[in-house]
Here is the input.
Amino acid sequence: MDSDRQLQRLDLNLLLAFDALITECNVTRAAARLAVGQPAMSASLARLRKFFGDPLLVREGRGLRPTHTALELAVPIRAALDSIESAVRATSEFNPRSDQRTFTVMASDYALLILLCPLLAELEDEAPNLQLNVQPTTGDFADRLNRSQLDLLVCPTERATGGIESRTTRLFSDRLMCVVDRNHPDIGDRITEEQFRTLPYVTYYNGGDPTISELRFRALGIQRPVDVYTQSWVIQPLMLPGTRFITLLPERLANHFAAHLGLRLLEPPYRLEPLTEAMYWSSRTDADPAHRWLRERVQHAAAKMER
Here is the structure.
């Protein structure tokens, strides 16, 4: 009975406030997230502290950090909120022409340019009130997907090898091609193994993790020194015009820039496994009509690429 009385004091709004506070670690941002005033959010934090008998957020420098108790509560509370939200949405219908919805999608700039940009043009007409918040890929993608901070993750299959508790479906594959300036002084109709190993090479920095190209090299036992690092795959082709640089790029990305930048695509001197992009989402959103509609639109856009 005591536990029943205790739960009666914890309404859904307090759970929503808890989730926003632990996610943002900032009272002002948490208030903005729930569209309430800062005094109201501060009052919710005080009630939560009293209910759980823990400060939940403590001062650290100029910011706040969650306590051990808050971190232990965060996952089950987020899961409970997801379950409630999924149950409510599963009983509703979604009309893309009129309904409003915001989806958060994490994808590389390559996937954004090749897959999502053409889709966004279609969605502008099909779902005028839908907002797509596309974020760059970060190392915490598994945790954010598991905690429902992302609606969709689009990434190479080898990037999602562990830690993701989700549904997945394959989207498309892309060959890796050598790309050089159209008038490269050293390379003729094909690139030799020696040229591939010795000519200056440009790739992108992946936050300390191996890139897709580096993973392919490791699988073949190839050591390929790097001369220049860029911020991303999409920047790599911009470094090639007028230089002796070579690089490896997904074929669709290379073709996107080839005509405008005066680039040539060549078969690599080694057999490299293609890149495969997949889509990941939380199983809690399976029955959500709007989420299912978006997944189908992404899959349709990917299918058109492979025709």
Notes: Residues 139 and 209 are 9 Å apart (CA to CA). The domain at 101-173+276-305 is CATH 3.40.190.10 (D-Maltodextrin-Binding Protein; domain 2). The two ends are 63 Å apart (CA to CA). The mean pLDDT is 88.
